[in-house]
Amino acid sequence: LEAKRRLGGRTGSFSLPAVAGAAEPVESIDYCQHVAMSCCTNLRQFIDWLGQSEHWLEHRELHFLSSRGEYQRLRPLPLLPAPLHIGHWLLRWPNLSWFDRLAVARGLFAMWRLRLSDALEEVPAMQWLEQHGQTASSLQHFWSTIMVSALGAELEAVNLAAATKVIQDGFLKHREA
Fold it and tell me: Where are the beta strands (DSSP E) in 71-150?
């Protein structure tokens, strides 16, 4: 069964014109499992099992494009423990006011404290984020960017279990995720 109406499920790509701050014009952007983070241990095991490890490239940073096409390169700060190693991201994240940044920080902290369970699969992530004080701008420019990049789905289609897994395992639990 596919998650979308086309083969590939949540994997795919889309095209953009040249992006401000990028070294070269961007023609095609891949999303979902074209790129995996170090926390994707089962995927890495599968790649090893298929004998494709030589095609696995490790990079120490993530690349995002804001909804306005602003480029953001993210990497952990050296020597700081998780989750402090990514605190500077929030200060530089494009299109957010200081009020939005504070809302995102509160949302990240609340999500960090959640315990993953089957019950979270029944809660829409958007609803939970709104109930936890996220602004319209933070939802559009931060949370949606992260969820579309990680899950290949719009924030409105993501449940709280999936969103929490991405945030906790991918960003907050340890520096090497």
Answer: 71-74
CA distances from 63 to 103, 114, 119 (A): 22, 27, 32
Which residue type occupies 150? A
What number of other Cβ atoms are within 10 A of residue 23's Cβ? 7
Joined tokens for residue 143: 């949370």
Q: What would the mean pLDDT of 93-115 be, rounded to a whole number?
A: 94
pTM: 0.73
End-to-end CA distance of the chain: 29
Helix (H, G, I), strand (E, B) or coil at 46: helix
On whether the CB atoms of residues 68 and 21 are closer than 8 A, the answer is no
**Residue 155: Cβ within 10 Å count:** 19
Alpha-carbon dihedral 3, 45, 55, 81, rounded to 10 degrees: 90
Evaluate whether 11 touches 31 at the Cβ level (below 8 Å).
Answer: yes
Residues 6+ apart with CB under 8 A from 5: none
- Residues comprising the chain, all counted: 177
Residue % of the chain over a pLDDT of 70:
77
Place of tokens 């449940």: 159
**110, β-bridge pairs:** none
